[in-house]
UniProtKB/TrEMBL annotation:
The keyword Secreted applies. Residues 1-22 form the signal peptide. It is found in: Secreted. GO terms for cellular component: extracellular space. It comes from Sarcophaga bullata. Residues 26-45, 168-190, 406-426 are annotated as: Disordered. Residues 181-190, 410-426 have a biased composition (Polar residues). Residues 33-45 have a biased composition (Low complexity). Keywords: Secreted, Signal. One of its GO terms (biological process) is lipid catabolic process. Residues 137-403 form the Lipase domain. This is Yolk protein A. Belongs to the AB hydrolase superfamily. Lipase family. Gene3D superfamilies: alpha/beta hydrolase.
Amino acid sequence: MTIMNPLRIVCLAALLLVAVNAKQPNSSSQNKLSPSQWLSPSQLQQTPAVDEITLQQLENMSMEKGSQLLEQIYHLSQINQDLKPSFVPSPSNVPCYLVKPNGQKVATSLDKLASACQQQSNFGNEEVTIFITGMPASQSQSVKKANRKMIEAYLQRYDNKRQQPQAYEYSGEKMSRTSSEENSNEWQNQQPASGNLVIIDLGDKLNNFKRFALLDVEQAGAMIGSAIVQMTQKCNVVDETVHVIGQSIAAHVAGAAGNEYTRQTGRQLRRITALDPSKILAKNAHTLTGLSRGDAEFVDAIHTNVYGMGTIQRVGDIDFYPNGPSHNLPGAQNVVEASMRATRYFAESVRPGNERNFPAVAANSLKQYKNNDGLGKRVYMGIDTAYDLEGDYILEVNAKSPFGKRAPVQKQNNYHGTHNSWKQME
C-alpha cells in the first residue's frame, strides 16, 4: 500500500476546506485557511509534494517561478501545522572534517568529532570556526562552489606562512581560480589569524528536498550541540573563541545547538552567524523553533533569498538584507544560487583585506537606503561585524565577484594555483 506524502495530504485537505468555505462564507475555519485567499484549487492540485522536488529542478527554474513554488509550499505546510518534523540523521552518519592550514582534511563523523579534535596538536588554542552546511554539495554546483569558497577563505585566513592559497577540491571536483575573488593580493599585507576550521556536513544528509523539509531542527541541533560540548571539554576550548556558522536550514540547527550548549554548560557560545536562514516547513505544535537572538552572545544573519528558500523574518541581533529585502539579487539566476550568495559574501569578507567589503546602514528598505535615509553609523556585514550592533541593515552588492561595493582594488594575474586535492584520512 502506498503511503501518501504529508504535504500531499495537506494540499487535499486544503481543497476540501476551500469547497466547504465556498458554501459557508461565515465559517470560522475560513479565516484559518488563509491560502484559499491567494491560491486556487487548481493551483493547489498542481503544487508538487516535497518528495517530488529536487535542487536541480529549483536551479533550472527562473527566480520568479522557484520563489513562487517555495512560497506556496511554505504556506501550505503551515496549515494547522500538519507537516511534522521526522528526519534526524544519526551522529555516526554525519560527516565532519577538520581542515588543516595546508588544505589537508581529517575526515571523521559527528560522534567521533571531539576525539578527532583532541588528536590534533594545538587544537582550540586560538579561534574555532564551525561551519554547518545546510544543502548537499553533491546535488548542486551553486552549493559546491559556495562551500569551497568558504573553506578556501578560512584557509587563507589561518595560513600563518602567508602563502598564496591553492585551489582545493570540494566533493570530488577540482575547480580553478578565475576571478578577483581568488586573485586578490591584499592578503600579503595582512596580519594572519590563527584558528581551526571544523566542517559539520549536515547538508550531505539532506540529499533530497523531503529530508530538507522534514528535518527536525531541534533534535538535530541538540545532537550537534552535544558534540560541540564534548569538543570544548576534551580540547579545553574557551567558549569565547567558538564561532558557529549555519547555512540555510542549518542556521536554525545552529541556534538549537547553541541552546543545547547553554543547557549543558550554563554558558553561551560567543557567536552564531546565519547564512540565508531558511524557512522552516515542519514544526512541532506549541514549540518555538528556529534561530533567534539569545541563542549565542551575538547572532548575526545575512538574508539573500527571503522570498524563496530564505526567510524575511529577523533571527538575530543584527540582520543584513543585501539589495533588499527584494525578489531579486544581482547576478543570481535561481533561488539556490541566491541562497548561496550569503555564503559567498561571508567568504569574501573572511579573506584578509576584504573584511570591510560590505558596508551597510540601518534602513527599512532598499529605497530608504538609496535615498540616504539610513539611520545611524556605517557598519560592516561579514566577519568584521561589530558585536554591539542591533537592528536591520541594508546594503548594495555587485552582481559578480568581488561582491562588496567597497571592495579594495584587486590586481588581476594569470595565476590559477595548483590543483591540490584534500587528502582523505581515516
